Amino acid sequence: MATTEQQAPTGFRGNLASKFGALGNPRYRRYWLGSLASVGAIQIATMAQGWLIVSDLGGTALSLGYLGAATAIPTILVNVFGGVLADRVDRRKLIIAVSLASSLLLLLLAILDATNAVQIWHVVVIASVQGLVMGFDGPVRSSFFPLLIERKEMMSAVALGSVMWQFSRLVTPIAGGLLIRYGGTESVFFVGVVGWVSMLLVMISLRISSPPPDKSRNVVDDMVEGIRFILGRRDFILLIGLTYATHFFGMQYLQLMPLFAQRFGGDAEEVVFGFLLSSLGLGALAGTLVVSRLRKHPRIGYIMLGGSLTFTVAVAAFAYAPSFGLALVSLFIGGLANTIYFVVAMTVLQLRVPEKMRGRVMGIYTITFSLIPLGGLMGGTIASIYDERVAVVIGAVILAAIFVIVGVTQPVIRSLNGTQLEKV
Prior knowledge:
By secondary structure, this protein is mainly α. The protein is built from 17 helices and no strands.
């Protein structure tokens, strides 16, 4: 996977590798920092879009659902093709193209907002085009970073990827809430542009030799081959399916969070919005540290399932928390518990997928991230009939039932051994 230059860490670099895992690799470290900037841009822009629609443009819970669908559906439609493309072209150049397009789209939204010309349909249309772009982003990122590391660093790299997302979820909501309060949503979008441009510059500077793509087959055959590979593996079907269910049913509260912020916020709802999301991010960051200590546990499958069930309970508790403090605690626990599942599942998939299939499998896997806003459409519909608390609890109950059924009936998941994750 990595180049010869990366295979024999010695001296200071060897100490870095032993202490920080994949982060001790200078190329991965540079990529990780650039990704952190762009992930922050994704999170802060998503947060501001929802806030702009609800608080500034007079949108409703259903409007948030439409925003989620506009983001998710194009991404899902493109994800599988994006995975095929990641196996057929230079992945570095594809990330450069994604970063450039994302920068320009966010800049357009920032200008519309700053000039007071923005309308709800502008936000939805730009989110839809961004969704098309992100259909390429997920598969290519997930298939690119293994080229920078050794296999023994895989769980470390996956955990660091989770740290990146969770640290961003910890910091950007508070920063975004303050920016919205004192500079308006347009300031958030401009900051997001800076994040994407940072990723663009990192990828331009990063040079890496990757295996030559196989272009002997046509695109449709490649898509079919990737789907057949997954369908032929019970462990892949279950792990990807459980991840889909977690994001669709279990994380609807993310799309509905502006409504919870209004419920708890009073006169400072922008800041409350940021603290709610940051509590979730802090819990997820803690979960990443916990799973790094449990990664070699022989009963990691049971731990993973237990974490997911704990997540569903925490989400339901958050929905009906009687106070802001209890809401923060519930989100912290939920973020911690859900991260245990995510890191273990992603590590198993990355270790067991053949390199030539990595882009296509990750293309199908990364559809999962689009299911958060798509689940938000379901949640928004239920919330418009009842309220956001009912919507979140219904999703949590459905997810808990799915995990109980899989845990009871599928030994291939519950018997996962942390010392043998590479084995089928």
